[in-house]
Amino acid sequence: MNNSSPLVITMGDPSGIGPEIVVKALVADRPRRCVVIGCADVIRASTERFAPNLKVSVLSAIEDATGQPDRVEVLDIGDMGSFRCGEVSAASGRAAFEAIRDGIAYARSGQAAGLVTAPIHKEALAAAGIAYPGHTEILADLVDAHRVVTWHLIVRLRRFSMGWALNLRSHVSPVSN
Question: Is residue 30 in some structural domain?
Answer without folding.
Answer: yes
